[in-house]
Amino acid sequence: MTHSDILAEILVPLRGDETDVALLQQGLALADLVNGKVASVYAQMDPTELMAWSADGAFATTSATLIQSARDGNEQAWTDVQARVEALAGGHAGLTVERLVGLQDRLLARRAALSDIVMFACETVRGKTNISPVFEALLMDAHAPIFIPRTPISMLTGAALIAWDGSVEAGRAAKAALPLLRKASTVIIIQSVGALEDEGKDLSDPARLQDWLGRQGITAQIELMDASKDAASEILKACTAHGAGLLVAGAYGHSRAREFVFGGVTRTLLKTVTTPSLMLCH
Question: What is the spatial distance between Cα 89 and Cα 73, in angstroms, rounded to a whole number?
Fold first, then answer.
């Protein structure tokens, strides 16, 4: 079996509104590029998990009414999601939709475990949609490979940059991005030496990644960035200089008070809308 025979699964968590259509269209374009299929998934909370039950008869009756109303709303939302997906699926046999009911982040983390790519829209990764917490949980807790389309999918056949620091996170990102890197006309490994940890510095040598990519059939160049300048700014500058359609990078951060706090470079890449499409792994 050759690389071109591999059928990648692109998982697309849905918000449940009209904006899903544009994201699914990008997912279908990506699937055409990498010989994949698009599995869309709509996760809903179980209304019974949102209501507190009481022995008091009047409150129990009110709760039951609210739960039924929420269930009816869920059913209508699911019907609307199915209609939008089915309208797109007419010309795309590789597009499916499924429904999950329960705790969104837990269920989607399990669903994403065997997916090759998980796709989220820019607005979601910037914390502006109802599934933004799901994005954070899948990236930081489930270590899912996250793809964020910010430029036309056709630009993925141009230059691809890999921000390399030798970390586990950067290694995961490079592995996850292989289907995309194989489609790029040029692959460039960029590194800011000043941002590297002293311990195990030899393991951060970009030549290691260059050699590994070569064994995957990918020829890569190495470009060192100005170590005296801000790493995030230099990464964005390199993307612009090369007209990159893809940036591959490790994602860094930690959990604090049940919220994720992203590291400086990761935060900049997520918030700056002028970056190319991103492939991130934690």
Answer: 24
pLDDT digits 0-9 by tens, 121-177: 999 998 889 999 999 999 988 999 999 999 999 999 999 999 999 999 999 999 999
Beta-carbon count within 10 A of 248 CB? 31
Encoded tokens for 133: 């917490």
Dig out the tokens for 196 from the structure: 């590297």
Q: What angle do CA 261, 264, 270 make, to 5 degrees?
A: 80
Classify 146 as helix, strand or coil.
strand
pLDDT tens profile 216-267: 999 999 999 987 888 888 999 999 999 999 999 998 875 544 445 567 888 8
Answer yes or no: are the C-beta atoms of 179 and 116 closer than 8 Å: yes
Fold of 151-281: Rossmann fold (3.40.50)
Q: For domain 3-50+75-146, give the CATH superfamily.
A: HUPs (3.40.50.620)
